[in-house]
Design brief:
Length: 87
């Protein structure tokens, strides 16, 4: 598999994506940045470049023109405080 998804266009999850070792501590979990559900075969997913916060994948439900903006806010107010607490 190539890193085609880095172009930020929507793609459909294949078996190959699911074999990648992305889940786990210190890695990019293969799930939407807004919902905890891991992506499954056939899901449509988009990789989002986010300024001043980690990049993320997003599901179709949470995608939108302002998704990078919303994820940065979500990261700063929800995710990072949780990570800090467990650090
Ligand atoms: Zn989502």
């Amino acid at each position: 598999m190539s890193n085609n998804f880095l172009d930020g266009k929507p793609f459909v999850v294949t078996e190959e994506h699911l074999k990648l070792p992305w889940a786990g501590k210190g890695r990019i979990a293969f799930s939407c940045g807004f919902c905890p559900r891991q992506f499954e075969l056939g899901d449509t997913v988009r990789w989002v470049y986010v300024e001043s916060a980690p990049n993320t994948f997003v599901c179709t439900e949470h995608d939108g023109p302002d998704v990078a903006e919303r994820f940065r806010e979500h990261w700063l107010t929800v995710i990072r405080p949780i990570l800090d607490r467990w650090a």
